[in-house]
Amino acid sequence: MRAGLNKIQRCPWCGNFIINAAIKNALKELGIPKHKVVIVSGVGCSGKTSQYIDSYGAETLHGRAVPFATGLKLANPDLTVIIYGWDGDGYGIWLGHFLHACRRNTNLTYIVANNENYGLTTGQASPTTPLHVKTKSTPEWNTLLPFDPNALAKAAWCQYSVHVIDKDIALLTQAIVDGIKHEGFSHIDVDQGCPSWKKW
Ligand SMILES: Cc1ncc(C[n+]2csc(CCOP(=O)(O)OP(=O)(O)O)c2C)c(N)n1
Ligand code: SF4
Ligand SMILES: [Mg+2]
Predict the structure, then answer these.
(1) How many angstroms separate the alpha carbon of residue 157 from the centre of ligand 2?
(2) Which residues sit with Cβ closer than 5 angstroms to ligand 3, an ion?
(3) CB-based contact 141:74 (threshold 8 Å)
(4) CA of 156 to the centre of ligand 2 (A)
(5) Where do the domains of the chain lie?
(6) What are the DSSP E strand ranges found in 104-146?
(7) Pairing of strands 124-125, 117-118
(8) CB of 44 closer than 6 A to ligand 1?
(9) Among 135, 148, 158, 192, which is least packed, fewest CB within 10 Å?
(10) At CA 50, angle to CA 192 and CA 172, rounded to 5?
(11) What is the pLDDT of residues 171-189, one digit of tens each?
């Protein structure tokens, strides 16, 4: 249990603040007590999310939050398990975990803070970086087409896969409420503002 929350270590105006607030709103609306919630994250700017929300939490390895959370839920089916991940983490390094979780349909809620870059490592291109934009790793322009995470999820038979923007906290909260209520694997891709690196 994270009773004493950690010092904030994110840039001002980072979209992760809004997503974290929406998670808190959703848990409050559903009336789920904090001892029944586990936030599982990997490595990235959002990695400390479990320390900013008063519940149980686990910070796992880069890209490994999905299998960790799957084991947790299978062993403790009464828990509400929320995975908080990112584009580089979940769509890049370990895309396979995401797609197989869609197929397996374990009752988990997977929120992806998709800022279209590798923020923590100072703004390299990720699998969702738009074509032709400049990043740290593509100093002229990004020559690769981004993929559509919701289309991938649906191709892997995910029955609840939505795309929302962090600016609309009411819609985001509702998407998380619906995702938690969905009995199976739910995927919420959030268009996340990253004022430090996402200049497009
Ligand atoms: C196995 C492994 N490879 C690489 C890294 C270095 N690393 C840390 S965060 C990160 C990328 C983060 O990008 P993203 O997942 O999109 O999260 P963001 O910081 O943008 O929220 C990388 C490559 C690592 N920690 N572990
Ligand atoms: S680099 Fe981007 S995602 Fe990371 S804390 Fe700063 S604004 Fe947020
Ligand atoms: Mg990212």
Answers:
(1) 31
(2) 86-88, 115, 119
(3) no
(4) 30
(5) 35-191
(6) 109-114, 117-118, 124-125
(7) antiparallel
(8) yes
(9) 148
(10) 35
(11) 999 999 999 999 999 999 9
